[in-house]
Design a protein that fits this description.
By secondary structure, the chain is an alpha+beta fold. It contains five helices and nine strands.
Length: about 200
């Protein structure tokens, strides 16, 4: 169905990007691999990343392409950061240009930084109805866990019932947590809700 094409050709709605989304600063690596149309808008790409990483879209986010930052406009334009462009109507192929990687940051408090790498470009004559999850590994941290240091403490406490914070963390999270778990079908179910 897909045939490889050159990255420097003009992108159109039938051009498909294979993206690898990797959460930085955590071992073992947490990543997802997805297919999206090159014409996807940045807000839709944000929804895609939220869906496959199991984030809950409770916080602000930003993209950075070769030093140029994009963020959704706030309700008070006068408070928007100077030099930051709006994600509205901005398409991935336009923002990416000739680059093959960019940053996506979610939750400026916990500062979850994702490196997104363009792994492949393909053409298809079948329009995509929604993004597609190809693969992935390991669970995404829970919302509001406290960034990388908080996540390390959380996983340590959850893994050891005798840990002093185990009961508190279990109560806070509401369930046991398996850091190695990734359910691609559950991710795909969320992606089916994103209409392209």
């Amino acid at each position: 169905m897909y045939a490889s094409i050159q990255h420097n050709m003009d992108m159109n709605p039938s051009t498909i990007f294979t993206l690898r989304i990797e959460l930085l600063d955590i071992e073992p690596v947490i990543f997802r691999q997805v297919l999206v149309p090159s014409s996807i808008t940045l807000p839709k790409l944000h929804q895609t990343i939220q869906a496959v990483m199991s984030w809950e879209d409770q916080h602000l986010y930003a993209f950075e392409f070769d030093g140029v930052k994009f963020s959704p406009p706030g309700p008070f334009p006068e408070l928007d950061l100077p030099g930051v462009r709006s994600t509205q109507r901005q398409r991935l192929s336009q923002a990416l240009g000739a680059a093959n990687r960019f940053l996506y940051t979610y939750d400026f408090g916990d500062d979850w930084r994702h490196l997104v790498t363009l792994q492949d470009i393909a053409a298809t004559d079948i329009p995509m109805k929604h993004p597609i999850c190809l693969s992935g590994a390991n669970a995404c941290p829970p919302e509001d866990v406290g960034g990388v240091p908080g996540y390390m403490e959380f996983t340590e406490a959850m893994a050891h019932p005798a840990h002093a914070s185990h009961a508190d963390m279990l109560c806070w999270h509401g369930a046991l947590f398996d850091p190695t778990r990734f359910d691609p079908e559950a991710a795909q179910q969320q992606l089916r809700k994103i209409r392209l």
